[in-house]
TrEMBL record:
Signal peptide: none annotated. One of its GO terms (molecular function) is acyltransferase activity. The chain crosses the membrane at residues 12-31, 59-77, 89-108, 120-138, 145-163, 194-218, 227-248, 254-276, 288-311, 331-350. Residues 10-138 form the DUF5009 domain. Keywords: Acyltransferase, Membrane, Transferase, Transmembrane, Transmembrane helix. InterPro entries: DUF5009. The keyword Ribonucleoprotein does not apply. This is Predicted acyltransferase. PANTHER family: LD22376P. It holds the Pfam family DUF5009.
Length: 358
């Protein structure tokens, strides 16, 4: 495939920024409205589905993993133009994967590690795994990349169905499935919410599909053909997931094949919309606000995981007296004030040219 190196894919930067704002927003506090009749449906969209089903909030992590994949062909092409050898690029990928896994396991989940029950369910850990798996096929023909991603989903689905387990329940039961059983055998932390480590394998498809889109966007196809590919692929994958859902339920916490398909479809369609809006139509001015956060994505994610609780407690010292004590309104305002503080930290880092990369 011929390559046409664009100056910058601004829509990708915008997608990354939007995703990071969502990740550190604490759902804008909207989940607090769950007990209000007129707001209940909206509030539920900003929480994870308890088990089966799909909420908007279930798409945020797939967005993050998909974006990592889209950026990979651009990064690889840049390194090759700079004259880096295959060996240098490979070791850069290994190093980056290990750092991401380290941040997820040791820094974010350090308490569980010290207890002797490590956890590999953090998004950074999963990105470290899926990033490396995607790199292994990154320079293969696109048909091979598509085939590998679909094969992973098929094998994952069959494994959940047919690997014998000491449970009488079916393959998709919470805490009694292949994923939770493997975590138990490996001595990993028992997750009461039903999250499992091996969903990093099926969700590798998100990163692989992102990389495929990256190659398409990097190619010499005209913009209209690129957009048609993104929309068509998104619709096909999305409907495939819904059509298969009576056979394999949509469950994010174990990342069933149908969940990966449906969420992957939304990733593709969101990228298509932003590509059309920003790169094709030229509506770029608004992207600065979100790009500020995307430029320091790992930093602000770590800040949110480690310090957001402290920040909310600090701000509530001032907001609760002003807003009449602890109530839904004060909680929502405090959460969004915290988001503004995090945005300003990113803005300050941007102004001082501080960019923390992994």
């Amino acid at each position: 495939m011929k390559e046409k190196i664009p100056d910058r894919l601004i829509s990708l930067d915008a997608f990354r920024g939007i995703t990071m704002i969502l990740l550190v927003s604490t759902g804008f506090g909207l989940a607090e409205l769950k007990d209000f009749p007129y707001w209940n449906e909206l509030a539920m969209q900003f929480t994870h589905a308890q088990w089966e089903g799909l909420h908007f909030w279930d798409l945020v992590q797939p967005f993050f993993m998909f974006i990592v994949g889209v950026a990979m062909p651009f990064s690889l092409s840049k390194r090759l133009r700079q004259g880096q050898s295959d060996r240098e690029i490979f070791w850069h990928v290994v190093q980056r994967s290990l750092i991401l896994i380290f941040l997820g396991v040791v820094i974010i989940k350090g308490v569980q590690l010290m207890k002797g029950t490590p956890s590999l369910t953090n998004v950074l850990t999963h990105i470290g795994i899926t990033y490396f798996l995607t790199f292994l096929i990154l320079r293969k023909p696109l048909k091979v990349q598509i085939g590998v991603s679909l094969a992973i989903l098929l094998i994952y689905d069959l494994a959940f169905r047919f690997v014998p387990l000491p449970y009488e329940a079916g393959p998709w039961q919470q805490a009694q499935n292949l994923g939770s059983h493997i975590d138990m055998l490996l001595g990993f932390e028992f997750n009461e919410g039903g999250w499992v480590t091996i969903n990093a394998l099926s969700t590798a498809a998100h990163t692989m599909w992102g990389a495929i889109c990256g190659w398409i966007l990097l190619s010499d196809r005209n913009e209209k053909r690129k957009l048609i590919f993104l929309v068509a692929a998104g619709v096909i994958v999305l409907f495939a997931g819904f059509i298969l859902s009576p056979v394999t339920p949509i469950i994010k916490r174990i990342a069933t094949s149908t969940f990966v398909l449906v969420s992957g479809g939304w990733c593709l369609l969101t990228l298509a919309f932003l590509y059309w809006l920003v790169d094709m139509k030229g509506y770029k001015s608004w992207t600065f606000f979100v790009n500020i956060v995307g430029m320091n994505s790992i930093f602000i994610y770590m800040f949110d995981i480690l310090l957001n609780g402290w920040l909310l407690d600090f701000l509530s010292i001032y907001t609760e007296p002003l807003l009449g004590g602890l109530n839904v309104g004060s909680i929502i305002i405090t959460i969004n004030l915290a988001l503004l503080v995090k945005w300003y930290i990113c803005y300050w880092m941007y102004k001082h040219k501080l960019f923390i990369k992994v």
